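Structure in, sequence out. Go:
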């Protein structure tokens, strides 16, 4: 049987992740990049990296997830777009079929997913307050002159973690300045921040939720050793003697989940409609010129701002309207 390849893209506000798997869910290639405020450029660059390493792999199906999934679906011609909860849950179940809890912490949001018998039974998301996300660590690490890559290794050297007050980034930042002035060690403040983030996460997302082991920790923040240590201690009762599970490709699990969903979708289409050719636009995407523009619709009192995506002079997508007047048919 010819090897089939499926493409998954997870596009968020801070990072873009791309994964390619085969029909057996083996990871063929992956890319993790910061968007730097330009999600289209980010995904074009990611696809170019894979193209340079793998050549023009035939893609049997493509899917997008993340906050920018509809935009990137239009850009790459993905067959489907799915929400982050579904994508992360699918990847977690594929990695560990017995999983009951998924912790995902990204740059601007965090998620808690409860799974029983391989079905999502409950979830919670925090996309409003930064105090339970990676940007919390990124911003406050800057106050101490520590990059996000250095954060974890420095934090676990702490012998006496500082108590960081407040459930808000603003208050935590003020507390850091105070503790710096009092001469606290850098590693003690950093580890204190790790405990604060995990406590915020459990308070904001875990309240009233039945967290059970096995627990998977995924997302970019899972590489932070200080956060892993804090979760292992604060969730000790829930772990019940088990270890916190961190997948090898924890940072691209959303993209892997999207790729699995693409495979499921295309196999379902083949059975139901006999139509299984992917709408993926191909490996020329990195060379295609995409532009954005906007205008205000004055057709009614809503005065919607309509965003347009233009590919080589042709409008291929519009967003922002409260009605279907400007939708691309």
């Amino acid at each position: 049987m010819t090897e089939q390849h499926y493409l998954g893209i997870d596009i968020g506000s801070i990072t873009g992740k791309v994964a390619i798997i085969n029909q057996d869910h083996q990871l063929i290639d992956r890319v993790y990049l910061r968007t730097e405020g330009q999600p289209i450029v980010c995904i074009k660059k990611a696809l170019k990296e894979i193209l340079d390493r793998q050549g023009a792999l035939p893609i049997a199906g493509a899917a997008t997830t993340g906050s920018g999934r509809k935009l990137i679906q239009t850009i790459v011609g993905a067959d489907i777009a799915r929400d982050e909860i579904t994508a992360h849950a699918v990847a977690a179940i594929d990695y560990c079929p017995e999983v009951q809890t998924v912790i995902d912490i990204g740059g601007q949001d965090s998620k808690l997913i409860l799974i029983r018998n391989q079905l999502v039974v409950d979830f919670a998301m925090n996309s409003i307050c930064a105090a339970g996300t990676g940007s919390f660590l990124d911003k406050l690490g800057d106050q101490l002159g520590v990059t996000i890559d250095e954060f974890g290794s420095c934090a676990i050297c702490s012998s006496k973690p500082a108590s960081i007050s407040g459930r808000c980034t603003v208050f935590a930042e003020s507390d850091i300045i105070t503790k710096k002035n009092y001469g606290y060690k850098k590693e003690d403040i950093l580890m204190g921040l790790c405990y604060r983030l995990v406590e915020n996460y459990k308070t904001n997302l875990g309240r009233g939720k039945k967290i059970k082991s096995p627990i998977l920790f995924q997302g970019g923040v899972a590489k932070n050793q200080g956060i892993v240590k804090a979760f292992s201690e604060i969730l000790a009762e829930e772990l019940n003697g088990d270890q916190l599970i961190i997948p090898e490709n924890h940072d691209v699990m959303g993209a892997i989940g999207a790729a699995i969903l693409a495979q499921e979708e295309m196999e379902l289409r083949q059975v139901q409609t006999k139509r299984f050719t992917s709408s993926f636009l191909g490996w020329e995407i990195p060379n295609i010129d995409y532009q954005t523009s906007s205008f205000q619709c004055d057709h009614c009192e809503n005065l919607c701002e309509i965003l347009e995506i233009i590919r080589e002079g042709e409008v291929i997508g519009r967003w922002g309207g409260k009605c279907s007047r400007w939708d691309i048919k």
